[in-house]
Amino acid sequence: MAILINGKEVSAEVKAGVAAEAAKLKEEKGLKVGLAVVIVGNNPASRVYVNSKKKACEEVGFQSFEYALDENTTQEQLLDLVDVLNRDSRVNGILVQLPLPKHIDENAIINAICVDKDVDAFHPKNVGRIMIGDYAFLPCTPAGVMELIAHTGVEVSGKNCVVIGRSNIVGKPMAMLLLHKSGTVTICHSKTQNIADITRNADILVVAVGKPNFVTGDMIKEGAVVIDVGMNRLENGKLCGDVEFASAEKKAGYITPVPGGVGPMTIAMLMKNTLTAAKQQSRVKK
Ligand code: GUN
């Protein structure tokens, strides 16, 4: 039976560290860390995420500035807002919740965010810095996964690491972070053949495909670390991951639950990035 990796507990530790540093920044420099969160339209999942991000800001003592824009907001209007936030000294980090409505070019918006305030690490310059291992911000979900793996005590170096999913937000940067820790990394995706043959070889398996119960116990190596990034809403309203938990926990050595695994870590790492941004900006201003 696998040991459960408790994302709530690990994220609470990360947030406590951030809160302590934020309090110190306020005391020593009179600086209150600020995060701007922008949401466009009425995507219910995005609303839940944005509310969680605002709540986390309160927990760690940050100011949050919410901009909830109408579904019909134009790209120009959104670019104007980003421009205002780039120049607002109260705002240390800018997060534009994705996905955006179809008439808005997401890349155009991401490219417009000031690199030093890009706490999602989605800007091409930050992506490039991750590639060469010289980064200020790590992308929140992959960074959270790395924290969870570290928490198990399992070393990444020399291990077979398999990432299922190749998105810009999770799969690709995830592979890069595992590679930086000297894992032997394989990325699987929708065109990969005989995926189970690959996953059965994984000492560390990270699943980010967005398909409920995609990975079953028979696809998992005995004792593997299994990290489930999926967050799928079933017809009955229940949340479920990309891993079939009941069969997977019988094979894995360590496994994350959904909810309560990766989700809380993404938000904790966002807080950490926002603190880093504030510290860097205060140094620049001195
Ligand atoms: N949509 C889903 N995940 C994320 C994330 O980490 N950041 C942003 N901005 N949007 C998302």
Question: Could you explain how this protein is built, in words?
Answer:
The chain has two domains: 29-116, Rossmann fold (3-Layer(aba) Sandwich), CATH 3.40.50; 140-263, 3-Layer(aba) Sandwich (Rossmann fold). Helix content is 45%, strand content 15%. The chain has ten helices and eleven strands. α2 (44-60) crosses α10 and α6 (140-152) packs across α7. The mean pLDDT is 97. Guanine is lined by residues 95-98, 120, 140-141, 169, 266.
Brief descriptors of the model:
six-stranded parallel β-sheet, Rossmann fold, 45% helix, 286 residues, binds guanine, 10 helices, globular, three-stranded parallel β-sheet, single chain, alpha/beta
Entry summary:
The protein is an alpha/beta fold. The protein is built from ten helices and eleven strands.
What is the element layout, followed by pairings?
Layout: E1 3-4, H1 7-29, E2 34-40, H2 44-60, E3 63-69, H3 75-87, E4 93-96, H4 106-112, H5 124-132, H6 140-152, E5 160-164, H7 171-180, E6 184-188, H8 195-199, E7 204-207, E8 225-228, E9 232-233, E10 239-240, H9 245-251, E11 254-255, H10 262-285
Parallel strand pairs: 1-11, 2-3, 2-4, 5-6, 5-7, 7-8, 8-11
Antiparallel strand pairs: 9-10
Helix pairs in contact: 1-10, 2-10, 6-7, 6-10
Bound molecules: guanine.
Guanine (GUN) binds at residues 95-98, 120, 140-141, 169, 266.
